[in-house]
Amino acid sequence: MKTENKNKFLKNEFLTLTILGALGVRDKNSPIYNKNVKQREKEELKDFLRNKLIEYSKHYHKRVSEEQHIRNIEQFAREITIKHKNILYKKEFRIGIAQKLLNLYLKYLWTSDKISEPPHCPFDNIIVSKINAKNIKWTALNGIKEYKILVEKAKKYSGKKSLAEWELEIWKRR
Question: Strand pairing partners for 88?
């Protein structure tokens, strides 16, 4: 099989798993969509997310600074909000969901040697509980300040390892 076909397959799988991992979370206190959103509208959002994730990932072929990564998460959430405000719960796409999408997609690309190591890891219930931030719900994160708190807490637990390497070890042990 041609390498190009293999890469297309992997890219599609990574995008599908990423979107499922971030949007598939059932949290009645932090829904993603307004009530009565049509399936077609959800699919349009998912297509938009796929395209944006591909676009953002192009910046990570070389190492991206932590500051730039945080700006990327903010911009990503803002772009989604602007484009899909009418179907989003409280008319905004939360930082917590945006970081999970971008960080998880980058993790897939990094672990398959498609990009450089990303500055952060995907923050989800497992990582949040490991850093004793149980009072913070990643699905409900509205602001970048709360996200930065998670990053700083994770750095204390990761020791000398990068957040990406540290999270990969945690994932392996579960």
Answer: 33
Structure tokens at 149: 């708190």
Cα 70 from Cα 118, distance rounded (Å): 11
Report the distance separating Cα 162 and Cα 116, nearest Å: 13
Residue 51 host element (H or E): helix 39-57
pLDDT digits (tens, 9 = 90+) for 131-154: 998 788 999 999 999 999 999 999
Gyration radius (Cα) of the chain, Å: 16
| pLDDT tens, residue by residue, 56-92 | 999 999 999 999 999 999 999 999 999 999 999 999 9
Identify the bridge partners of residue 33 per DSSP, sorted by sequence position. 88
Q: Say how far residue 141 (Cα) sits from the centre of its chain.
A: 12
pTM: 0.95
Q: What is the C-alpha to C-alpha distance for residues 137 and 84, in angstroms, rounded to an integer? A: 23
- Give yes or no for a contact between 113 and 68, defined as CB atoms under 8 angstroms apart: no
d(Cα 22, Cα 100) in Å, to the nearest integer?
6
SS3 57: helix
Question: Which pair of tokens denotes residue 34?
Answer: 């307004």
Per-residue confidence (pLDDT) for residue 110, from 0 to 100: 97
> Tokens representing 100?
């999970």
